From TrEMBL:
It comes from Letharia columbiana. InterPro entries: 1_2-HQD/HQD, Catechol_dOase_N, Intradiol_dOase_C, Intradiol_dOase_core, Intradiol_RC_Dioxygenase. This is Catechol dioxygenase. Residues 32-105 form the Catechol dioxygenase N-terminal domain. Belongs to the intradiol ring-cleavage dioxygenase family. Coiled coil: none annotated. GO terms for molecular function: catechol 1,2-dioxygenase activity; ferric iron binding. Gene3D superfamilies: Aromatic compound dioxygenase. Keywords: Dioxygenase, Iron, Metal-binding, Oxidoreductase. The lineage of its organism: Eukaryota, Fungi, Dikarya, Ascomycota, Pezizomycotina.
């Protein structure tokens, strides 16, 4: 940028008392009102945090070194920043704000750091996992809209760990994707596949996030679960997971993903299911009904909740494309 063309307001003799207003002032010249609003609130809260905690230079440098380490350990198959966001509860908060769910629809959960775009397309009934040590299970699901109508042709991304609690991308010598697949719902909104019963496992705790958990005297474990992601034009994007009821970490998930409506139980296959789906009698079966909401339903609910939340905070804003910006009228 040519400095001579920048309209920079005069600033000097900045102090604890005037640094915030001046930082906001110089950041408020963008033509993007959303960027202006986000930076104004970010600077306000960051500066207030420093004042309220009387943040020391030593602590500030430790925080910068911590974030540097988070970035350095991240890779294409390990996203430590997502992990950090998860253990701070931010991932769940952002998803809940951006993808609100009306009553009786499927609630969202955290994406986690191990989703991959390498998953292969599979047909209904195929085996997603080839882990011979895992306990086989059959998963039978339906997808409906909020009015109970089946939703066909939904892209479903599914992934889980192996029986040792590791995702395929955690193995350096892996030959290809396993424990994950992509399929589409049929004309009646159904999809089904074979997998292994999920197991509880620790999130990666050999890096900076793990060290932070240790300092906080928190464990790194997640309850047994299976991830699902649903995409179809006209419907709100849904990232969720199903958690095994009764898991020892059900109420202390390291990344805050468990919700009562997402807890499930397995039941043994009877003769009819065993014959229809070619599984052994008594083998584990998981049945679940997913409910998607339309883009319009989600947008209206998001706007409604945003207006109320910001009014409660005393913020004078207006919504543009569903996002708050300063209301200067």
């Amino acid at each position: 940028m040519d400095p001579s063309k920048a309209k920079v307001p005069p600033m000097k003799d900045l102090t604890i008392d005037n640094i915030t207003e001046n930082t906001i002032r110089i950041n408020s010249q963008s033509s993007d009102p959303r960027l202006t609003y986000v930076l104004e609130r970010l600077v306000t809260h960051l500066h207030d945090f420093a004042r309220e905690t009387r943040l020391s230079t030593k602590e500030w440098m430790a925080a910068l070194e911590f974030l540097t380490a988070v970035g350095q350990i991240s890779s294409d198959v390990r996203q430590e920043f997502i992990l950090l966001s998860d253990i701070l509860g931010l991932s769940l908060l952002v998803d809940s704000i951006d993808h609100p769910k009306p009553a009786r629809s499927t609630e969202g959960s955290v994406l986690g750091p191990f989703h991959s775009h390498e998953a292969e397309d599979m047909a209904h009934g195929d085996a997603m996992s080839h882990d011979a040590q895992g306990e086989s299970c059959l998963v039978l699901c339906t997808i409906k809209d909020s009015h109970g109508k089946p939703v066909p042709d939904v892209k479903i991304d599914i992934w889980e760990t192996d029986s040792s609690g590791h995702y395929d991308v955690q193995y350096a010598d892996r030959e290809g994707p396993d424990g994950r697949c992509v399929m589409k719902s049929d004309q009646d909104g159904n999809f089904w596949f074979k997998a292994i019963k999920p197991v509880s496992y620790p999130i990666p705790h050999d890096g900076p996030v793990g060290k932070l958990l240790e300092k906080l005297q928190r464990h790194p474990f997640r309850p047994a679960h299976m991830h699902f992601m649903f995409e179809r034009p006209g419907y709100d994007h849904l990232i969720t997971a199903l958690y095994t009821r009764g898991d020892p970490y059900e109420t202390s998930d390291a990344v805050f993903g468990v919700k009562e409506s997402l807890l499930v139980e397995f039941h043994p296959a009877d003769k009819m299911i065993a014959k229809e789906y070619d599984v052994e009698i008594g083998s584990a079966v998981l049945e679940h009904d997913f409910v998607l909401v339309s883009d319009i339903e989600a947008s209206d609910l998001r706007d409604e909740r945003s207006k109320k939340a910001l009014a409660d905070l005393g913020r004078k804003v207006k919504l543009v494309h569903g996002l708050p910006v300063p209301d200067v009228d």
